[in-house]
């Protein structure tokens, strides 16, 4: 879950968010798009028991803004 970008830090109207994930130990990287009013997104098809660095950037019509500091998470066992 993430907070809205403060108005004084926006460089235009937020059109969406780009969430990127990079595995620390596996070859498993990717990105997911989220809508402008989204504040959370479920990442699917991640590998079990792997540490991922997850970063977020907001987008406007001019492109992506700065990327956040990484949040490190470890996935659990697949819930089948």
CATH superfamily: Immunoglobulins
> H/E order of the elements?
EEEEE
Structural class: mainly beta
Radius of gyration: 14 Å
3D shape: elongated
CATH architecture: Sandwich
Query: How many alpha or pi helices?
Result: 0
From the N-terminal CA to the C-terminal CA, the straight-line distance is 24 Å
- The domain count comes to 1
CATH fold topology: Immunoglobulin-like
Mean pLDDT across the residues is 93
Major sheet details: 5 strands, antiparallel
Please indicate the percent range of residues in DSSP E strands (runs of 2 or more).
Answer: 35-45%
The CATH class, by name, is Mainly Beta
Low-confidence stretches: none
Describe this structure in words.
The structure is a single chain. This protein is an all-beta fold and 80 residues long. It has one domain (7-74): Immunoglobulin-like (Sandwich). The protein has no helices and five strands. Strands 1, 2, 3, 4 and 5 form a five-stranded antiparallel β-sheet that branches. A hairpin with a 2-residue loop joins strand 3 and strand 4 (63-64). The chain is elongated, with a radius of gyration of 14 Å.
Relevant terms:
single chain; 80 residues; mainly beta; Immunoglobulin-like
């Amino acid at each position: 879950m993430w907070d809205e970008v403060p108005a004084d830090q926006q460089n235009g109207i937020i059109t969406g968010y780009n969430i990127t994930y990079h595995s620390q130990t596996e070859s498993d990287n990717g990105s997911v798009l989220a809508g402008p009013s989204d504040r959370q997104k479920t990442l699917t098809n991640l590998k079990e028991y792997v540490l991922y660095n997850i970063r977020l950037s907001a987008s406007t019509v001019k492109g992506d803004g700065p990327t956040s500091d990484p949040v490190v998470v470890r996935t659990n066992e697949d819930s089948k």
